[in-house]
Write a structure and sequence with these properties.
This protein is α/β, with parallel strands linked by helices and about 230 residues long. It has a single domain, classed as Glutaconate Coenzyme A-transferase (3-Layer(aba) Sandwich). The strands form 2 sheets. Strands 1, 2, 3, 4, 5, 9, 10, 11 and 12 form a 9-stranded mixed beta sheet that branches. Strands 6-8-7 form a 3-stranded antiparallel beta sheet. Helix 5 links the parallel strand 4 and strand 5. The protein is globular and about 55 Å long. The termini are far apart. The relative contact order is 0.20.
């Protein structure tokens, strides 16, 4: 019998090892898998590659990742810290200890979607001729310059949902749907923390993320997240 439920955050993240790559859903503080983020912080894995919209909110939920220099590379759309004092990850980037791959938000989403669809790379006019496009292959399409962007895949993807059944079918609420539906197919292991388990299969019209893309689901309390 298929049952993708696990008993704890620790069990959900049990095989996250040194050198792993992890996609983390959420738009700023909205729809973030806060319990899994804290679990990632607690698991002790290092030399991580994180793929996340905003580094600031990751640092807020999992401060040890940067305070203990356990992230070697970050792919993100926003890397500005909070306030005037530089964050740990800003200081590490300035010192050459952290590799940051910054990309426009639409490109970020498409790189993930392409990874899940088996597309190795694509051209986009976004970032052509500006700082973010420097060093990337450039081609003209109908006279318009476009840069080559590579797709993104990861060992793990973590996200938050409202409800799931034992088959791994997930229903999102509000901003929980932001990057999760693209990240799950782009990861070898997709893990979803949910607010409720459904003892009966979710109705097809209620499913936002099909269970075929989900490997583990774990019950986690409401974190007071922004829903939008």
């Amino acid at each position: 019998m298929i049952d993708k439920r696990v008993d704890s955050i620790e069990a959900a993240l049990i095989d996250v090892r040194d050198g792993a790559s992890v996609m983390i859903s959420g738009f700023g503080g909205a729809g973030t898998p806060a319990n899994l983020m804290r679990g990632l912080d607690a698991c002790g894995a290092k030399d991580l590659t994180v793929i996340v919209n905003s580094l600031r909110f990751l640092e807020g939920q999992a401060p040890g990742l940067f305070a203990e220099k356990r992230v070697k590379k970050a792919v993100c759309t926003a890397a500005r810290g909070r306030g005037k004092t530089p964050s740990d990850y800003e200081l590490q980037w300035q010192a050459g200890e952290l590799d940051i791959d910054m990309c426009p938000q639409g490109t970020f989403a498409e790189r993930i979607r392409a990874g899940g669809a088996g597309i190795p790379a694509f051209y986009t006019p976004t970032a052509a001729g500006v700082e973010l496009g420097k060093g990337k292959e450039l081609r003209l399409f109908d006279g318009r310059p476009c840069v080559l962007e590579t797709s993104l895949r990861a060992d793990f993807a973590i996200m938050r949902g409202a409800e799931a059944d034992r088959f791994g079918n997930v229903r999102f609420r509000g901003n929980q749907a932001n990057f999760g539906m693209a990240m799950a197919p782009a990861a070898d292991v997709a893990i979803v923390e949910v607010q409720a388990f459904s003892e009966t299969p979710l109705a097809p019209e209620d499913i936002d993320l099909p269970g075929v893309y989900v490997q583990r689901i774990v019950l986690a309390p409401d974190t007071g997240e922004i829903r939008g």
